[in-house]
Batch of 4 targets.
Target 1
Amino acid sequence: MTNRASNGFHYRRSVAEIDLRRIENNYRAFAALVPEATFICPMVKANAYGHGDNEVAKALRHAGAKYLGVALVEEGETLRRGGDRGPVLVFGPADMGSAEAMLRENLTPVVSAWDQLEALEIAHAELGTSRVSLHFEFNTGMNRLGFEPHEVPKLKEWLVKMAKAYRLDGVCTHLFSGNDAGEASKYSDAQLSCFAEIAASFPDVIVHALNSSGSVNIWKRLQDSKNVPASARKPLGLRPGIGIYGVNPGNDENAMIGLKPVMSVKTHIISLHRIAKGDNVSYGPSWTAERDSVVGTVPFGYADGYRRALSNKADVLMRGRRIKQIGTVCMDYFMIDLTDLDAEKPVKSGEEVVLLGEQGREQITADELAQLAGTIPYEILTGISDRVTKTYLK
Ligand SMILES: Cc1ncc(COP(=O)(O)O)c(C=O)c1O
């Protein structure tokens, strides 16, 4: 186990433990869904969904990932500084400010608008780099990024004109409702059949469209379906994000396809208070003792990514048991009700508390915290702040 502590917070014992073996396991679970040569581009944007991009990138390359995906040019630069030399697709726009860095670092632009092509042309003329590999993104209904389908002929003309400087390696789109793929996948099917026509206009390039939920829900059905145009049956590439980090990307347990949660958040009791019935806990107060109680203080707050919306709602794990969080979550701390646990055996300062992950037979998932906080697991994972030291299991 190595302790990164590069964030400077190396005294505190509140850690996010990242199991890189599970990153590899989860990548392989996606790879097992599709024929061998299918394009798979695991997403390591947003610091690998809060897990540490350089470490996750190394684990993914080790597991066989040929491509990695980021949102920002800066994220691509971070991977290069960390020593990654493989293909990295940048899904966010290259603009006049970032196109040069994109080309200098040999990152692969996923271009979604004409002004990005202009920025790349200028950067390419200035730097005189070798032929640039590009992907085009198309808008098939999400209305976020992407060329419109009717722009295909113009883009093809551009490619012919610029053939010396640019090579199109892939076309893609992004699903906005990947887990609508039950029996009637109305949004995703519409997007994919629109995309199939676009893909048919670019017969020799990689086509990719499926995020984690799309991958587990649609891939198989699409390959078997007789209603899907032949052009769409060309193996559709995957771009799994959240599933790589072990969050269930689908609507039921089958969608787990062997995925395992990667991040655990662990800390410990730093203070104990014996309070009388009627005493209050934390700001507000939003919790009042209904009996004489033992209150434990946990050094982890909303500035660490434990959301204030969890106040009086979440559980933590101690001694393999669920314990109630009580009172309002503070910036650096929250409190838990240790009355019953302490009655069994007195609780001591320093005892381990698990906020996310497994302990004994119990488990707290990012999904559970997200539901309690009224958000999505993506926000829980990316929200674990840089104050929390990451520890890596390899
Ligand atoms: C373009 C693109 N592809 C793939 C993904 C991965 O999605 P998910 O994390 O739902 O698998 C994202 C994430 O939002 C994305 O923006």
Target 2
Amino acid sequence: MNPNFVPPVNPQQIASPSRDIYAAMGQENISRMIDDFYMELEKSPIREMFPRDMRASAEKSAAFFIGLLGGPPLYHQRYGNPMMRARHLPFPINQGARDEWLACFERVLEHATERYKFPAEHLEGFRKFLHGFSLWMMNC
Ligand code: HEM
């Protein structure tokens, strides 16, 4: 982490995704989508940033996304205040790493309506959220 680094985004301008997404998908489909995202991370150039066994990471992320998309606040209940930027500070997230992370998510979103019942009308809003929030995770 570079203490002088300023993330290229104002977090107040990042709109949360629609909470209707959870109503359409449910917990199981969101968890499957995140599992598939982690399978993409497995094959990606940023694989080494993650622990060798990514099952716990995938579960934590699923808990976060379930709450974010309108479901029960599982992440808060299990792990406390998300403070996502602070939790990502131990990992050197630069533009290149962020782009790889986003590309992994994009590969999953390409099939999300048919595979996980992701509501098509909310895909653009969700992509915008990922785009902005992943800029906010950058720290170098
Ligand atoms: C929309 C943006 C992002 C969201 C919503 C997100 C979400 C999460 C969540 C919920 C966790 C689990 C935190 C915990 O340990 O409790 C996590 C961990 C992590 N994330 Fe992200 N993340 C984002 C962007 C990124 C980016 C851009 C990178 C790197 C390029 C990244 C790398 C990591 C790493 C290395 C971990 C730790 C995994 C572990 O130790 O289990 N994340 N992220």
Target 3
Amino acid sequence: MVRVLAVNGSPRRAKGNTALVLRSLLEGAEAAGAETETVIVDELELKPCTCGAMRCWYGTPGECCIRDGMDAVYPRLRAADTLVLASPVYVPLPGRMQDFLNRVCPLMEPRLEFHDGRTRARVRPGVALRRIALVTTGDWWERENSARLVGIARELAEVMNIGFAGAAIRPHALAMWKDKQLTPGAVEALAAAKRAGTELVRDGTMSEETLAAVSRPLVPEETLRGMYNNWLRGD
Ligand SMILES: Cc1cc2nc3c(=O)[nH]c(=O)nc-3n(C[C@H](O)[C@H](O)[C@H](O)COP(=O)(O)O)c2cc1C
């Protein structure tokens, strides 16, 4: 059975738009037979990595020297074959999510390889992880606004020498709501996120067509810009 571990780095935790899109994706993953679990980074009381000496590679290989909420997450990270990182765009990501990403180092072993001009490590024996996917939401209109975050998730997968399964990007996420209700366009985007979750488990990747449907425009760019600019003026 495919085991999916989702890590939600939104400071709004389970109440945010990131959690909303993530939940749909995980529903799709479960429909395809996966076992899923979600960790909320802000509930872990994470300490940042303070070990500049890479002790988890050369001192106590595979073990982080910091004792905190990550202790309970490491066994789940080692057992999952699919890691779904979920994060809002915070130019580029929330600080605690960055702390989490730094703390993933003990899962890798420093048997370095050089491919296409880039240095790559690998996951340790006993770590089941084979792919990383990303769920991200932002409030600006265009999908490209998430590019930096997509690059970070892809880079982590490549550094670990595992697959990058794609990014479910929900731009102008605030426009999913009107009068505290999901708009019809948002309902369609969430249905696409659910299909993406099914594809992730079934195919190990998410199709471009489905990911485009997750990101479908909900309002014209000028409308969104008008909303922002009118707020600024206090209209
Ligand atoms: C500090 C901060 C920086 C942000 N930077 C961006 C940004 O660069 N681009 C963007 O589209 N949205 C940005 N946002 C908006 C969030 O990405 C957006 O509201 C997201 O959907 C929040 O997800 P959540 O509801 O799960 O917290 C920013 C929000 C905050 C608080």
Target 4
Amino acid sequence: MAHQGSYQVETFAVGLDHEIRRLNAQVDLFWTSERTALERAGLQGAMDVLDCGCGPGRLIELLKNDNPSLRLTGLEIDPVLVDAATARFRSLGIDDCTVVQGSAEQTGLAPGSFDFIVMRLVLEHVPDPVLALRSLRTLLRPGGRIAVISNDFEFHERTWPPVPELDDLYEAYCASRRADGGDPCIGRRLPALLHEAGFSLVGFETETAHSNMIGDQAFFLAEGAGIPAQLVQDGFLAESVFERMVESWRTMLEHPDHAIIRPLFVGVGENPDPQHQAAQGPLSAGVEAPPLRHDLEFVAPSTDLERQIAEIWAEIIGVEQVGVTNNFFDLGGNSLMLEQIQIRLEELLDADLALTVLFQFPTVASLAASREALDVADRPTPADRDTGSAPNPSTTSGAAVSPEAVSAQAQRRRDAAARRRR
Ligand SMILES: C[S@@+](CC[C@H](N)C(=O)[O-])C[C@H]1O[C@@H](n2cnc3c(N)ncnc32)[C@H](O)[C@@H]1O
């Protein structure tokens, strides 16, 4: 069995019961946003789902209530928590969810037996995150997905008015977790770690809890003073800082406009289907392609510009055809391809094209419309010719481009053309 890294339920905060209550509250804190984040990640009815590092089982309980057709299993390294989750399910009459004892690294579960894995607030504690993710990947069927939900302590809970001592607390917390082999700032690394473990990356987002939406109490229950008190006991945080923090926290709560906010990071990886992968081949720079969508509606280009843009996209994304309403990212496009497309479009249009424009207009139709607007804007209108005044962006087609953006873009184009002439 792998060792437990930087999380042990009995010593993480002051007391086992307190810590179990805190873990449950931490699931509740994010449930509203997490439920939809998991749906977006692909979790849906009648799937075989594993909650890896399920703790006392609160997430399983909520998922089961929300969607009774999910077939849920918990995996938990700590026998104390296996027992706590099992007892909880029994008391709630949930008799079709089991919790097995095992680690992410050595699960003991049958390969290819799950459609979806959730790993919530666990990866930041394991000594070798890639090893753990690789092992979990073997449990997924081809095309199955994992949603890894993690903290990143540089983006942890913040307040208005600020509680300055939170900086000291997070520094102490990070030092303590690192001393045990964890990485409390792992949130930002999720895409790279999923990729290294052989997943194709299909999503990365943050979910957020805000006190104006869920009240102050939810934060108190989820954080409480248990962890800071333990950090004081373990010598990572000075007692005087802890006392000041309690005072600042109280003052913050008295402010009429006070706010508490906390984000979590969600990385979603897909276990590539080997047949699908062989057909596509790897992309440049070792980035695997997300599966291409062949079920997208095809609307043919209707102008020369649309046809030219669609041809460039198709060539660079590696698909047979691109409809003018297809979203670049749904087609399997990624940021590396965007840069290649930027270069090709600049050649085609003989103009500078900011990458942000490509994000802003992610379909051929919207991009062509924005370019037509810019082209027209750049040409003098009959009235401009009469008066010799500057082009009038408001006389351009109805594309959703602000006049400021149009004139800034037109200026960049003129500057670029001048640079090329030099
Ligand atoms: C912070 S708790 C999170 C619990 C639960 N997922 C939640 O969101 O409330 C971390 C959990 O991961 C478990 N854990 C730690 N290392 C593990 C490993 N290598 N494999 C499986 N579980 C592990 C711990 O025992 C603990 O239950």
